[in-house]
């Protein structure tokens, strides 16, 4: 007597379908699980015994052998419990019907027979859908997140006995078609935060303009200046001018956060703002661990990664930014596995001119020359070259701090950002691609660079010794400036402004 039920296992940000094969044979009553399963999976034997007893189901008094195929892939998830229990019921002829075609089962069993939610349900559903499965039995606690995945049918399960009754046509479980996917509530609008608003930042018009461009085109920014000039305040106000997450982006972000936490029923509606401390470990920022999980780099996906005092972070952490800044992904290679997590974020970093922070300002600097040199060398050339925009944040005149002069609010800036993003969506035919994602081929085809602007860029590149990478980044920034003004072509004025945000050949 045998039966097979399909389940799925996480593999980074994707998944692999697993065949849960159950065979009943004569012998001493026992449960044996094979297929390169770890302790968490092997302990399912005890959960099954308790769940069957408390759900008033009969556990066959046979030798029960469960194989998780393919057997050469490590299994480290408790999400196979529901599939194993169902396979035992079908193999023991305790059901009048088998599961339908193209059906997957995911869920962890409690000792009382209830089905607990599992980590990373969205990735499991997406992996199954891509492989042709369209019906999924999932824990009731995962249903809210599962509704984000379009074009599938989910069957929420609260107890293993519900599956038993369903497969015996006694009580039918409710199936839900997700259609185009639902978020469960209306999207948040841009600029809806009142805790941080650009109107509360006195002065710093150049920095505000740079952050508006960064928000419109998803460009990375380095804010440099002495302490107390509002660098952190500016960075924390940036989320208020970003457009709301699209349904596709909401799906991606919610999935990544569910992999890293136990918030199985939470939907991420707003763009993430991650601000790790400079003393955080490399693994917590990059990702990884014994059982690899996303780090802060990936948790900032489709949002903002704010690294305050970037030179104070460890050298390995700073250099690890090279891949996500260029490729929008982070590869986590370990001895037991190699995974890839998405890491498409806007980097907002801050830095001081020197360790004390006052080199080159009106205040007296207390640093020795070699301290200033060592501090500046903490950021390597390749990292600086990958940052699109470099902005000096000037000191604020004290007399202006308590004035109520008219400052542009985040809502007003957000309106321009949304229009610029709309132009990019129309150009690229997708809501997830922005100007910062353009390839060299895209720039040649749709950069729409006027001959005068190109001549200006070529002259600047020659005189200022701009690298090839930053040459192309300057075009991307200029393209965003043009989108903010509603211009189809990049004019010399747009290019001149973009070149103002380059890295100077002086001490920062």
Please tell me about this protein's structure:
- The chain has about 500 residues and is of the alpha/beta class.
- Helices cover about 35% and strands about 15% of the residues.
- It has 20 helices and 19 strands.
- A hairpin with a 4-residue loop joins β13 (about 285-290) and β14 (about 295).
- The chain is elongated, with a radius of gyration of 27 Å.
- Residues about 185-195 have low confidence and may be disordered.
CATH fold descriptor of the largest domain: Rossmann fold
Distance between the termini: 73 Å
Largest sheet: 5 strands, parallel
**Rounded Rg:** 27 Å
Write the CATH homologous superfamily of the largest domain. Answer: P-loop containing nucleotide triphosphate hydrolases
> Strand share of the residues?
15-25%
SSE arrangement:
Blueprint: E1 2-11, E2 14-25, E3 30-34, H1 39-42, H2 44-54, E4 63-69, H3 81-91, E5 103-105, E6 108-109, E7 115-116, H4 121-130, E8 135-139, H5 143-146, E9 153-157, H6 160-167, E10 176-177, H7 205-217, E11 221-224, H8 231-237, H9 247-260, E12 273-274, H10 282-286, E13 287-288, E14 293-294, H11 296-299, E15 304-307, H12 315-319, H13 322-327, E16 329-333, E17 338-342, E18 346-351, H14 369-376, H15 381-386, E19 389-392, H16 410-428, H17 440-446, H18 451-464, H19 468-484, H20 492-499
Parallel strand pairs: 3-4, 5-8, 8-9, 11-18, 11-19, 12-15, 15-18
Antiparallel strand pairs: 1-2, 2-4, 6-7, 9-10, 13-14, 16-17
């Amino acid at each position: 007597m045998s039966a097979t039920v399909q389940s799925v296992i996480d593999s980074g940000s994707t998944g692999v379908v697993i065949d849960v094969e159950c065979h009943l044979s004569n012998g001493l009553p026992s449960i044996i699980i094979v297929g390169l399963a770890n302790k968490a999976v092997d302990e399912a034997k005890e959960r099954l015994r308790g769940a069957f007893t408390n759900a008033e189901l009969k556990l066959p008094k046979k030798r029960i052998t469960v194989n998780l195929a393919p057997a050469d892939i490590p299994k480290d998830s408790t999400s196979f419990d529901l599939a194993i229990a169902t396979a035992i019921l079908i193999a023991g002829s305790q059901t009048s019907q088998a599961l339908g075609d193209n059906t997957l089962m995911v869920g962890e069993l409690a000792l009382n027979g209830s089905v607990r939610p599992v980590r990373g349900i969205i990735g499991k559903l997406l992996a199954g859908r891509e492989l042709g499965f369209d019906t999924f039995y999932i824990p009731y606690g995962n249903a809210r997140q599962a509704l984000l995945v379009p074009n599938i049918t989910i069957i929420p399960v609260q107890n293993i006995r519900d599956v038993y009754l369903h497969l015996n046509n006694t009580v039918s479980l409710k199936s839900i078609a997700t259609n185009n996917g639902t978020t469960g509530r209306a999207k948040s609008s841009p600029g809806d935060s009142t805790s941080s608003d650009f109107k509360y930042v006195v002065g710093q018009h150049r920095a505000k303009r740079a952050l508006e461009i960064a928000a419109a085109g998803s460009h990375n920014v380095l804010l440099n200046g002495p302490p107390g000039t509002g660098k952190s305040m500016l960075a924390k106000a940036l989320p208020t001018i970003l457009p709301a997450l699209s349904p596709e982006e909401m799906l991606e972000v919610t999935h990544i956060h569910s992999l890293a936490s136990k918030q199985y029923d939470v939907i991420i509606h707003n763009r993430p703002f991650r601000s790790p401390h400079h003393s955080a470990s490399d693994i917590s920022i990059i990702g990884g661990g014994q059982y690899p999980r996303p780090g802060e780099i990936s948790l900032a996906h489709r949002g903002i990664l704010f690294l305050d005092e970037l030179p104070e972070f460890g050298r390995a952490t700073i250099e690890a930014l090279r891949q996500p800044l260029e490729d929008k992904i982070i590869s986590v290679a370990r001895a037991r596995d190699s995974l890839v997590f998405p890491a498409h974020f806007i980097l907002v970093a801050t830095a001081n001119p020197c360790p004390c922070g006052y080199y080159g300002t009106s205040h007296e600097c207390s640093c020795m020359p070699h301290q200033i040199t060592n501090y500046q060398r903490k950021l390597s050339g390749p990292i600086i070259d990958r940052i699109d925009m470099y902005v000096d944040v000037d000191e604020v005149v004290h007399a202006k701090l308590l004035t109520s002069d008219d400052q542009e609010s985040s809502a007003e800036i957000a309106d321009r950002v949304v229009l610029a993003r709309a132009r990019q969506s129309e150009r690229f035919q997708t809501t997830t691609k922005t100007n910062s994602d353009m390839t060299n081929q895209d720039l040649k085809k749709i950069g729409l660079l006027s001959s005068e602007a190109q001549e200006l860029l070529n002259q600047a590149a020659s005189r200022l010794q701009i690298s090839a990478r930053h040459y192309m980044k300057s075009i991307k920034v200029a393209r965003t400036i043009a989108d903010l003004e509603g211009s189809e072509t990049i004019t010399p004025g747009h290019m001149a402004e973009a070149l103002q945000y380059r890295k100077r050949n002086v001490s920062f």
